[in-house]
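Quick one, T. Sequence first:
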Amino acid sequence: MKKYFLVGILVVSAFACKENRRQEIFMKQQDESVWVSFENPAGGKGIAAQTNKGAKGYPSDRILAGDSVEVLNIRGAGVIQRMWMTVNDRSPEMLRNLWLKMYWDDVAVPAVSAPFGDFFCNGLSMVTAFENCFFSNPEGRSFNCIIPMPFKTAARIVLINRSEKDLRNFFYDVNLIRLKKWDKNMMYFHTHWNRENPTTLGQDFTILPEIKGQGRFLGVSMGVRTDSLYRNTWWGEGEVKMYIDGDTDFPTLCGTGTEDYIGTGWGQGRFANMYQGCLVAGKDRCWSFYRFHVPDAVLFQKSCRITLQQIGGDDYPVVLELWRQKVPLIPISVFINEEARLIGLLDEPVHFDDPAFPAGWVNFYRQDDVSSVAYFYWDRP
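Structure tokens:
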């Protein structure tokens, strides 16, 4: 119990506008609680659960192929505190073709636009049971999000079925508070979805393209489906790079490797922690993982851009064989274990198939199917 209490304090303090709001759960408040679902789509007072004389008359609905449903449409200032949803078809095919969009303050461009499964921290829309600081799926059958999402004048959420199949059952509720007063220090929640299949050889994958303004990078959920051409070689040597407040060629923040970025090392097995995790590890050559910057805030005042290098690695004989078979790769460095020394191959190019080439662990650029949902707060809707 103590562990979860401390985690709750951390999450609340990370987003509270004032330090004393850590104690808000037992303080008197003037804001109004609102639940929106099919039983009360307007979130109105005293009008919920009217269908079938209140006896569970409208808990769910269907979404036909090519159709959409408006999940939320509310006026005024507020903060979405929790979203719960579930669907009968939880296959990656359906969850990648269900599209979630969120609009703040009547802006025509959605602040959130991402596949349903990926948005809820299921990389590649491959569902598994887990819990972290912002998302949970207790038994692999539901989708929960508790990221606070403020809005000043309006909020609208739409779910679109882009698949060729009808979705028979969609259940949801969105829990929020109506604010008596908007705080000018509040920022708007956003996502950026990206997929490259395959990535471009020698180019970094874009997690977040450059955005200008003030904000906070909240974290990322990623999926990687490795190309079978590379066999069982390791794919996760790439470093996360964060270009902050005008950085150009080189970043201010940089990691040391993909699995290092999510808090593990020497490979990547399955685990689910509060701020970092890997929910799929190697199944059908697939990997899904996440990292959230709650205790280690990533703040920007003017601009932000975030990328991930597309680098893998393996022992020299393995990589040499792939290279000779003309598998798309570019050797970039070799680590000599006995000497604990890394030799850069781009600063001083060498012949990769030279008999004198130092045998060791070779890092190389590669191409895979990579996707991500970046979560961030921004000073505009």
